[in-house]
Prior knowledge:
The chain is mainly alpha-helical. The protein has a domain at about 35-85. About 65% of the residues lie in helices and about 0% in strands. The chain is built from 3 helices and no strands. Helix 2 runs antiparallel to helix 3 (about 70-85).
Amino acid sequence: MPIIAPPTFTGVASTPYWHALKAGYSTHRPITAEDEAAIPYLGVAGRISNLRFHLVDKPLIRGTESRTEGWADRELTALRQAADELL
């Protein structure tokens, strides 16, 4: 039997739709307390990946002026907020 990795709920968990999605998803596959507790930390990992994209990869494609679009600043702000909440 193949191992199926659980989806990452980081995006939807911060929306008003989380409870509905969780209820529907749970009818087919359980979401454990440990799974749910990991969501904020997976969100941090995703934001770090986004930050790297906006600071390194995107400027290679669109030029360094893309760094002034505000995406990196928003990711840094969200990481600071996550640190306040998780640490």
